[in-house]
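Much of our argument rests on the idea that a fold can be written as discrete symbols. Part of our work consisted of pairing the sequence of a single chain with a tokenised description of its backbone. We regard such an encoding as a compact summary of how the chain folds. The amino acid sequence and the backbone structure tokens for this protein are reproduced below.
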Amino acid sequence: MAAAVMAPVLIGTAAAAAAGDPARGEAIATSRSLGLCTLCHALPGQPPALQGNLGPPLAGIGARLDAQALRARLLTPERFNPDTLMPAYGRSEGLQRVAAAQRGRPLLTPAQIDDVVAYLAGLR
């Protein structure tokens, strides 16, 4: 029998966004204890009083940026704005102002980042 061929993992592509679950991504993005996106951003469907205005509104972000660009902004936000307050969600090193309980751990796992990317990519 022929050996099974594993498909390569596509990090930073539209295929990677498709690998994530948009419903889980929405739950992460709107969580006030996990993704914390609404602390700084307005997200569709969220009560206005629970949305931030430090970052740009995310309504329609999937029409403006592809999955690769969304992922890059989650992983290396300082690349796009050196003065950003947005955390690097996938890194655990080279960060500043990290809570003691979070040191050495990324804010989100790779699977959670896939989910958030899938959710944001669907905001058209």
About this structure: The domain at 19-30+61-121 is CATH 1.10.760.10 (Cytochrome Bc1 Complex; Chain D, domain 2). The radius of gyration is 15 Å.
